[in-house]
Amino acid sequence: MEFFLKYLIKFLSVIMVLFWSYLTIASDSTRILVIHSYSQDYPWTKGQHEGFVDTLKQISPIIKTEYLDTKRVAYESIYAVNYEKFIEQKYNGFQPDAIYITDDNALKFGLNHIHNLFPDTPLFFSGVNDYSQLEKLKPNLETGVFEKKEIKPNLDLLSELFSIQPGTQIKLAIVGDNSKTDYVIKETLEKEIKEQKNLSTDYISSNRLDSILASLRESDATIILLTTVGAIKDQNENALNLQSIITSIAQFDDKIVICMEDGYLFDGVLGGYVTSAYSQGKSAANLLQAYLNGTPMASLSPITKSPNEYIFNDKVLEILDLSLPKNITDIARILNPRINFYQRYKQAIQIVIVLLSLSLVVLSFLYFLFISRKNKQLSQANIVISEQANNLETEVLERTEALNESRNQLKLALESAIKSQQKAERANKAKSVFLANMSHELRTPMHGILSYAIMGVKRIDKSTSEKNLNYFSNIKTSGDRLLVLLNDLLDLAKLESGKMDMNYKQSSLQFVAQNCVSEQQARLDERNQKIIYMPDNITGEGFFDDVRIGQVITNLLSNAIKFIHEDEKIEFAISNTDLSSRVVDRKEKCKTVPALLFSVRDYGKGIPNQELVLVFDKFEQSSNSEVGTMKGTGLGLPISKEIINLHHGKIWAENHPDGGAVFSFIIPVEQVETELLKRRKDD
After folding, report:
1. Is 528 left (phi over 0), alpha (psi -120 to 50) or beta?
2. What is the per-residue pLDDT across 239-264, written as a single tens digit (0 to 9) for each?
3. Which helix (H) or strand (E) holds 571?
4. Nearest C-alpha neighbor of 31 from the set 110, 117, 91, 72
5. Which residue from 187, 184, 183, 220 is spatially nearest to 202, judged by alpha carbons?
6. Are 557 and 600 in contact (CB under 8 A)?
7. Rounded distance, CA 225 to CA 604, Å?
8. Residue by residue, what is the 3-state secondary structure of 584-604?
9. Calpha distance 312→154 (Å, rounded)
10. Half-sphere exposure for 271 (CA within 13 Å, toward CB)
């Protein structure tokens, strides 16, 4: 039960975090108030809304939508005032970032009423026919997209579709719903039609369907052009839906119906060069997007070139046996595309393909049987030859493999012998050099001790206190030097035998390094040399033996001093890094652990490349050291290597590209337990 409650609490916590994140994101979303002139079921309104919302999907805005519904209710001043009160009450406390309105009535409401409620909120519109509204727009507050129904592209299209010769008269019945929008469109069309000499028109404007149908029956026009018909009602003054209106108008078999709005493309309507509701909404959304991206409203000029397009119903084209001109086909949007030959006879074609496939499978099987019999005869004849060839090939391969193996073993043995000989010669040479150096180094301080002791004994009665102090000081100096040599030998012996005890504890590598520098200060002052710390803003806290790591740092600093002349400098740095470590518990696995990196750089001659690998071997010394200094025993770097190995780190030397040598070591920040360390603890 406790286990269940524990995970239930975790699950609820995750849900709360996700819910809070959603609320936070939602609260930062752009808030938009949308007011449409017509109802949500009106195709023109629906198309603009979809184009607007789809374009803004990426910013996920919060959209509140209202409808004036002026196809059903006349837009009058009292209605506008009441609607303003309705908006004020419903959206009390809601502050939109932008307002989007569609069509002429909503624009009038926006310009005269909406800014009373939201005075500083930018307003965007689309689908507006009345271009006179341009003069009333405030550039820093209002912009949008105008709609213009263009008759000339449709007239040119009709001429191409029906091969109308120049001078032939075209009779056109222009149908509208006698609304204010219809009046504005009629004014625009009259200006364009005046320029068309071969065109005569019947204007049929009414808000009653029976009146429009009666006028169309009497008209001898062969082409019906629909402008705006959304406000048409039946004989009982009931508002009709757009589909029933257009279906009734398109019932005349002797008349071709074209339209100027994409929302009218129901069955029976050919289409034409139409105003696109989706493009209107999309263009308005692009203006809003530019504003949200920082473009000032005053720089967002209204779009007066209506984003129209060619749209056609392919079913009507097929019935009329018409083909669109290629230049229009390439750019037009086709609705209800006709079924091609494959689509029409798809099932029959698929049956034929299946039968042909089965026949091919049967023929292939028979052919396979025939070929398999012939192949069987040939394969039996080839078996004997194949077996003999395989036996011969196997024998040749076995003998070749045995010969190669013998040759490889001989080569490896020879290489191993050469390496062993070279290693032995190098070790013997190094050992001889070491013994020679050690005998000299041991003899020199011992000789000094004995010489000054003998002088002190002989002259004890005659010597002054100052001379006796000088004798004892020289004896102490020689003894200290001898003690260092003996300590190095003892340290190396302990490290190699695994008997060196390490006192691991939490220490600061920076503190240890600075102490080591202080110990070398007298030697540095004597040679007018400097050691510069290049800090990395860390203290170098880690788990290590501070005495032994101090011994390594002292050794590296001492060696660096040997590599430089007087008045030169040495740099050292400490930084954080990573170290690939092998941890042993029940089975081995590799991991990367945090580590400390210490580097010392001198500005001397550097180390010959062939000696970089050898400097950490016992008895080896660089040939470029000792710029005015004494040779060491060659034990400092091997001892340092053993100490770093016990800390599970690594130490190396390299030449700096700008000159001088760099000695570095890495040790893990935390102690790494290994089987070797466990055995040393157990012992």
Report:
1. left
2. 888 889 999 998 888 888 998 888 88
3. strand 569-584
4. 91
5. 220
6. yes
7. 97
8. ECCCEEEEEEEEEEEEEEECC
9. 12
10. 24
Residues 6+ apart with CB under 8 A from 632: 559, 562, 621
Tell me how far apart the alpha carbons of residues 679 and 509 are, in angstroms, rounded to a whole number.
Answer: 27
Contact criterion met (CB below 8 Å) for 320 and 258: no
Question: Read out DSSP for 82-117?
Answer: HHHHHHHHHTTT---SEEEEEHHHHHHHIIIIIHHH
Strand order in the sheet with 569-584: 530-534, 569-584, 588-602, 661-668, 650-655
CB proximity list for 593: less than 8 A, separation 6 or greater? 578, 579, 581, 668, 669, 670, 672
Average the pLDDT over each of 124-138, 248-262, 284-298 and give the range with the smallest value: 248-262
pLDDT of 518-575, one tens digit each? 888 888 888 888 888 887 677 789 999 999 999 999 999 988 888 888 888 899 999 9
Q: How many CB atoms lie within 10 A of CB 616?
A: 19
Residue listed under structure tokens 């028109």:
201
The identity of residue 78, as a single letter, is I
> Residue 460 corresponds to which amino acid?
I
Q: What is the DSSP letter of 241?
A: P
Structure tokens at 467: 């001379």
d(CA 190, CA 194): 6
Structure tokens at 115: 């800014």
Place of tokens 């029956």: 217
Residue located via tokens 């394969």: 379
Q: Which residue has the tokens 């000032």?
A: 296
| Predicted TM-score (pTM) above 0.85 | no
Do the Cβ atoms of 641 and 633 come closer than 8 Å? no
CA distance 147 to 303: 9
What is the rounded distance in angstroms from the CA atom of residue 67 to the CA atom of residue 45? 10
Q: Name the token pair of 675.
A: 């089987």
**Cα–Cα distance for residue pair 138/128, rounded to 1 Å:** 16
* Bridge partner list, 64: 33
Amino acid, single-letter form, for residue 188 = T
- Assess contact for 492 and 642: CB atoms under 8 A: yes
DSSP codes, 308-367: EEEEEEHHHHHHTT----HHHHTT-EEESPPP-HHHHTHHHHHHHHHHHHHHHHHHHHHH
- 338, 179 in Cβ contact below 8 A? no
Residue type, 243: Q
Average confidence (pLDDT) over 147-151: 85
Instruction: Report the candidate in 593, 633, 577, 596 with the shortest Cα–Cα distance to residue 512.
Output: 596
Contacts of 202 (CB under 8 A, 6+ apart): 171, 172, 173, 174, 215, 219, 221
Tell me which residue has tokens 């449409």: 36
Location of structure tokens 């000088």 = 470
Give the tens place of pLDDT for each residue, 436-492.
666 666 666 776 687 777 877 777 777 777 777 777 877 877 776 677 667 767 776
Per-residue pLDDT reduced to its tens digit, 89-103: 999 989 999 999 999
Structure tokens at 280: 């209107």
Type of residue at 529: Q
What is the C-alpha to C-alpha distance for residues 459 and 203, in angstroms, rounded to an integer? Answer: 146
379 beta partners: none
